[in-house]
Structure formats: C-alpha cells, structure tokens
Input
Amino acid sequence: MNEFLPDGYIEIVKRLALGIEPEDALQRARVAPPLTVTYDASARGLPRPSIERHRSCLHVLVYGPGVATPVELRLFENQRRFVPRRLRYPIHPQAAAETRPASERMRRPRMFPGANYDLDSGATGLRGRVLRGGVPMRWARVEATLPGALAPLALAHGDDRGEFLLVLPSDAALSSLDPVWPATVTVFGPATVPVPATPELPALDPLWDLPIDDAPAPGVPDPVSAGEVRPAGYTASQSLPVNFVPGRVVSQVTFTIV
Output
C-alpha cells in the first residue's frame, strides 16, 4: 500500500538515517574537495548499505536493511589536505526518527588540516612533528593555550607520519602589534602504544590505529564531531613554549616523547 501516491503507481520512499556534512575546521565551511565516507569495518564479507555523496558535498545514509545504531564511519582523502577521522554515531531507530526533527539526523564532523592543506597567505600557525621512542607518533592531538587561559586557543590533529599543522584562528583576540604571541603547545597521545592484532594489519589497513571518536546521542550538543574532545585513553605527553609570529607559520618544531 502506497504512502503518498495512488496504489496504481510504484512508490519508493527513502528516509534519511544520517546526513554527514564534513566541515573545514579552519574555514568553518563545508569541505569542498572530495572526501570518502565509508563504514569503518566490513560486515564479514556482506555488503554494507551505501553512503552516497551528493554534488553538494553532503553524504547521506538512508534507512534500509543493515542500517543499525551506532554507525561507525571513516572520513578520509588521499591528498593529505585533511587528517582522517573515525567516528561512531548513534542514530534514531526509523520509527522514532519520524517523530524527531530532521536536524537530529545531521552531523557536521570537523576535518582538521593535513600537511598539504591549502593554507591562506598570512596565516599564523605551527608545523610540528611528534616522535615517540624515536619514531613518528601517529594520530596525535595538539592544543595551543595562551598564558592564563583555561580553554585552548587552537586545536590540531596529527597524521600517520606524526606531522601536524596548527593554525590560530583569524579572529583570535591578539594584538597585531606584538612581534610574537607566546603560547603553550601540548601534544596528546594514547597512554600505551597501540599494537596491531596481526603483523600484516598495518599494511592491510593504513588507519588501523586511528582512534574512534564516540559522538553523543542525536539532538544534544556534539563537541566530539567538532574535534574538541580527545579520544579515550589520550593523555598529555609533552608541552613546549612556542612563540607564534603573526602572519607566519613556524616550522621545524619537534615534540619528543619517551
């Protein structure tokens, strides 16, 4: 029995389970370069419901067989413009979703700049690297804090090579007359070094140890998608004073963790 059309017609109704609008963490605008959004894990060889990418750069998952809560996703691209993310999103059961605002089915995960990010001229920031035991520490989280401030001024996500690009916001309340802006930069990493389940796993899955961020329930504030919440098990590893130079990106800063 059709829901909208007379029964003489074939009716196919698709309802949104989860809409993904990736957001540039610096520009606070929709990510234009193509991102790949996929399920995080295989379903033991069974096909997963597709996550469609529209020309508007929105990604859409509709209700259907195999769609269950939570949904574990990967967001990545291959040009190193953005650092990959893994996110776990609770979704409403379809029956409950019908009674909830459509906005509760939308998420806006922020993608943080990678090594090849198209950085604006005149940006103020830091390119750094994190080493642990003499090798790159993968997937670091980085925070810059001004003296006396309680909240970070800027955030960054490290990549699989231990590299990160931290950019201060253009609207930061700092005087352009100061020759430098002193801040403390702290890197965070897992308390214990991840170990692959099998020796061949790193070659088979480049994102095998990328932490999964657990988002809150639909309809409540979501600092996890915003990248403001560190992954479970991440602890402060090292802090260094850094003098940011207005209009320049400071380079060659290495954090070394035992």
Q: What stands out?
A: The first helix runs from residue 94 to 97. The two ends are 66 Å apart (CA to CA). The mean pLDDT is 89. The first strand starts at residue 16 and ends at 20.
